[in-house]
Design goal:
The chain is an alpha+beta fold and about 375 residues long. It has 12 helices and 17 strands. It has a 5-stranded antiparallel beta sheet with strand order 8-7-9-15-10. A 4-stranded antiparallel beta sheet has the order 1-2-6-3. The protein binds flavin mononucleotide (FMN). Flavin mononucleotide binds near residues 110, 312, 336 and 342. Flavin mononucleotide binds next to helix 11.
Length: about 375
């Protein structure tokens, strides 16, 4: 990553999330409403906690945009945490005289134990505040800016829920994206969706949580992004890192991925075809998921992503008290039951960020029109 860079800041129950994005060319139309619409998509999904109703995220652009277009300077953005009102004492920046209860009941599956040992705390609060997936709202804001750029090149990114707790949706191509967007689980298959929702209801009743698989697909990606020449320039490696960094993601596969391991070579590869008309090259199948030798091959980029059941259980797991070392039940903080649909939206954002970065690497440009000119010439 180098042509499009970003940093986020902010604790889950702090004042706000902050984002700085550097490297976006000038002249790109961009609005707060466009970014906010993506934040809203991240907050939906059957199985989310009551916090989603409190937050209703809104993006506030601080710099880098003038009269509705980017000006080439860093884009800074704020997303206020409405919940801050309830956390002013607990998350106060200044020292406080009030007795604030510390969290010592370690939660399995979270950064709690490793985090307090690494950073030298006797309270989990400073770790969980930043380890929380609240931070991904800032990534989705950055992803929205990247997506806006990619749209100018007719690259579109979608995600859908493939499975929840082993219940698989039937995938019929082309996928019905308007149906996915209006589905409470971002699922294309309405009968699987009913089963998934019932499973979420049962898990909620039992104080349990569920994981699943989402698929994220980029359409319209040109041949030639990424490179075979070095490990850190391989596009599949870069996308895998970006998506694996999402909270609760435990597996990333391209195309047929793990299933390819059991196929003979004669059934695993995509046959190349040449056409008279643009884009001239295509493959008869897309088992590779759009990337060969670390370079985009012109087919859609298809990434399947495994999301673990989230670790905070309303019916908590047995654990250990950080101070007394005695056996306790894990700390319970208000929590979601299933986040697969939201994780899909975050997956779209991370894929958009990597693709915008490699587009800028290949085509450059300080202004959008310069990037587009270089793209057309290629
Ligand atoms: C959108 C989203 C929302 C999440 N919400 C919760 C939650 O409410 N409770 C919880 O325990 N974990 C939640 N997680 C998962 C944790 O953030 C994550 O499992 C934890 O930080 C440990 O990191 P790891 O699973 O990547 O190893 C959420 C993840 C995502 C992607």
């Amino acid at each position: 990553m180098g042509h499009l860079r970003f940093l986020t800041a902010g604790e889950s129950h702090g004042k706000a999330l902050a984002l700085i994005v550097e490297g976006m060319p000038a002249g790109l139309p961009l609005s707060e409403q466009y970014i906010t619409a993506e934040l809203v998509r991240r907050q939906k999904g059957y199985g989310r906690s009551s916090r989603m109703a409190i937050e209703q995220d809104r993006a506030q652009i601080i710099s880098g945009v003038r009269h509705g277009v980017t000006i080439g300077s860093p884009i800074a953005l704020l997303i206020q945490n409405r919940d801050w009102e309830n956390w002013k004492e607990i998350m106060s920046v200044s020292p406080t005289d009030k007795e604030i209860e510390s969290i010592a009941h370690l939660r399995p599956g979270h950064a709690d134990l490793a985090g307090v040992i690494k950073y030298g705390f006797d309270d989990v609060r400073p770790i969980l505040e930043r380890a929380s997936a609240r931070e991904t709202a800032a990534r989705v804001a950055c992803g929205a800016i990247a997506r806006r750029f990619l749209e100018e090149f007719e690259i579109a990114i979608h995600s859908h829920t493939w499975a929840i707790s082993g219940i698989e949706a039937k995938i019929n191509h082309p996928l019905d994206w308007p149906r996915v967007e209006s589905s409470p689980l971002r699922c294309a298959d309405s009968s699987a969706e009913r089963e998934m929702m019932a499973a979420i209801d049962v898990a909620k009743e039992r104080g349990d949580t569920l994981g699943g698989i989402f698929q994220v697909i980029a359409f319209g990606v040109p041949i030639g992004l990424g490179s075979h020449v070095h490990w850190d320039r391989r596009l599949d490696g870069r996308i895998a890192q970006a998506i694996m960094s999402i909270n609760a993601v435990k597996g990333v596969e391209f195309g047929e991925g793990f299933r390819m391991a059991s196929l003979p070579g004669s059934e695993a590869h995509d046959i190349i075809q040449h056409d008279e008309a643009p884009p001239f090259w295509h493959h008869t199948t897309n088992r590779a998921g759009g990337i060969e030798g670390g370079i985009s091959n012109g087919e859609p980029i298809v990434v399947n992503v495994a999301v673990k059941p989230i670790p905070t259980l309303a019916h908590p797991l047995p654990s250990i008290d950080l101070k007394t070392k005695g056996e306790v039940l894990a700390h319970v903080e208000r929590s979601d039951v299933c986040v697969v649909p939201a994780a899909g939206v975050i997956g779209e954002a991370m894929l958009a960020i990597v693709l915008a970065d490699v587009m800028l690497e290949k085509f450059g440009g300080d202004s959008l029109s310069e990037s587009q000119r270089n793209y057309r010439l290629f």
